[in-house]
Amino acid sequence: MTSSTGALRPLLLGLGIMLVAFNMRPALTSVGPLLDAIRTATGLGNVGAAYLTTLPVLCIGLACTLGPVVIRRLGADRGVLLAVAVVALGSGLRGLGGLEPLFIGACLAAFGIGLSGVLLPGLVKREFPARVGLMTGLYTMVLCLGAAAGAGFSVPLARATDSWSFALGLWGLPALMATLAWIPFARRPDPAERAVRRRPLWRDPLAWQVTGFMGLQSSLAYILFGWLPVVLQSRGLDATEAGFVASLMSIGQAPFALLVPSFAARAKDQRLYAAALLALAVMTILGLVFGPLAFALPFGMLLGGSLGGLFGLGLTIIVLRARDTAGAADLAAMSQSVGYTLASLGPLGFGLAHDLTGGWGASVALFCLIAAAAWLCSLGAGRNRTVGTR
């Protein structure tokens, strides 16, 4: 019985990680398709909408700073349980209606998302050291499918229930299911795990390059999670059509999110992957904003592929640039705390640029500048080196 349970544990743990990963994006991607309905019902202006898409990303960054503390106090396994429970609470809170529950719930859910994002890379390195690329790709793919579900089903749910807030609150249910499913894995931390004191990385240039790449490529994704449906509706698509394109963008992330980490983990150098994916992101956003709407669906799928590949590549680089499990958690905490704080400025800047100019040209130019900065960071982050060495 014991040996059978031990043999099944990696499979069950892997499934548990996938359930947690599924809930790391719907709280973020479900808002964009409903943003016009929220603004109509609550009187939320353009600046308020920009803050609604920015504050959760900032909360993700703040939560990431607590990763090492949570590992020492609770252990990574119990930390994941706490994180996904907070996602469930925050997502459900949005169902109460009104701006206060919406903002508070969004920030709470984002806090749980940020905490789980720091803990999962270390768990993968600890539990699946020989399959880092495969497991990173799998949970990134499932994460992208969760993003697609949030983008694609939120408008139909709102219309079926005649309530945007109830539709947002329903996303607390899959997070609650993941919380219950993770309970068997919430074991006590090993004394050695709690005793680890991680080396500071703030003076390590490579750590900063990884942080810059992670934050800037995430900024591109969060810009599009929050603003792509609005852009498409301004071009003439209705809310359902715009949500469908956003959902396809998220679905398009899945195959790239699976394949890019698997191939990149085997390569000696990840710089070419970063350059190709960033170029694809720039070309497809230009096509969506300025090209014919007849090509919105294929452009959306390709844009999603670039974003999914970049996110999977960023997570893979974190694991590859670390020498051990503790180093992976440390680098994940730094790159995601600082990185997501940096990423939070993207949606805000994108929205403010539109508000100031009345068009999308300046906003798209900002997107391209962020992509160029991410490429510059990838020149260092993609090298075959590890943090803490020269």
TrEMBL record:
**What UniProt keywords are attached to this protein's entry?**
Membrane, Transmembrane, Transmembrane helix
Q: Does the keyword Membrane apply?
A: yes
The protein's GO terms of the molecular function aspect are:
transmembrane transporter activity
- Name its species: Methylobacterium gossipiicola
Bilayer-crossing residues are: 48-71, 78-96, 102-124, 136-158, 164-185, 206-230, 242-260, 272-295, 301-320, 332-353, 359-381
Protein name, per record:
MFS transporter, CP family, cyanate transporter
Instruction: Give the superkingdom in one word.
Output: Bacteria
Q: Which Pfam families match?
A: MFS_1 (PF07690)
Residue span of the signal peptide, if any? none
